[in-house]
């Protein structure tokens, strides 16, 4: 089996496992549909690419130096996620008026939230540090090899986001009544709050 295939399978198993990022993606998809989670996913992917780059460059010392910054970043993300969850819970079941348009998602804020969710877990870099030397010849890593690793991460994450998004969309359509919408909204809010708590305690 190709070393890059091994990396892809290991990364997919790790990235698809339930955690704050997946909870955030599911919450977005449950409340707004498949495409609603894409900007958040973009931030998460950017965070994972930064983690990979740090591991490849051997910047583990940077994580220690910037420890306090990671803590601040982490709790900023926690507060925002919990706030979003509470807001979603309070407005559960609210239907838009005929002439009322849904508020557009702030793409920059969503990307920043996804990036924060990923970077606030510096331990994630250990995944790459542990995996890469045993799978990829780091000393012989070329720009093309690095680009291939980045492509694998982007493709795997896209599949995960679309997969969870479709699953959430199916649930949304099965429970489309007003009462069900309130339930879905509360579930989405609870998942956002849960994601914040998971980030806070990890």
UniProtKB/TrEMBL annotation:
TM stretches of this protein: 6-26, 38-59, 65-86, 107-131, 146-171, 183-201
Top-level lineage group: Bacteria
Subcellular location: Cell membrane
Keyword field: Cell membrane, Membrane, Transmembrane, Transmembrane helix
Principal place of residence: membrane
Membrane topology label: Multi-pass membrane protein
Entry-linked PANTHER family: ARGININE EXPORTER PROTEIN ARGO, ARGININE EXPORTER PROTEIN ARGO-RELATED
Name of the protein described by the UniProt record: Lysine transporter LysE
Source organism per UniProt: Brevibacillus choshinensis
């Amino acid at each position: 089996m190709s070393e890059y295939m091994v990396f892809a399978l290991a990364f997919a198993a790790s990235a698809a496992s339930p955690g704050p990022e997946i909870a955030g993606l599911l919450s977005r998809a449950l409340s707004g549909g498949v495409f609603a989670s894409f900007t958040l996913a973009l931030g998460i992917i950017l965070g994972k690419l930064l983690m990979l780059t740090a591991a490849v460059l051997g910047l583990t010392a940077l994580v220690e130096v910037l420890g306090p910054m990671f803590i601040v970043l982490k709790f900023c993300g926690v507060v925002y996620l919990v706030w979003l969850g509470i807001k979603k819970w309070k407005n559960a079941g609210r239907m838009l008026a005929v002439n009322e348009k849904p508020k557009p998602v702030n793409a920059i804020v969503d990307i920043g939230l996804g990036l924060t969710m990923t970077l606030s877990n510096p331990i994630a870099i250990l995944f790459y540090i542990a995996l890469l030397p045993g799978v990829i010849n780091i000393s012989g890593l070329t720009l093309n090899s690095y680009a291939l690793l980045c492509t694998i991460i982007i493709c795997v994450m896209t599949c995960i986001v679309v997969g969870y998004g479709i699953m959430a969309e199916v649930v949304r359509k099965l429970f489309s009544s007003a009462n069900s919408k309130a339930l879905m909204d509360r579930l989405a809010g609870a998942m956002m709050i849960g994601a914040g708590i998971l980030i806070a305690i990890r």
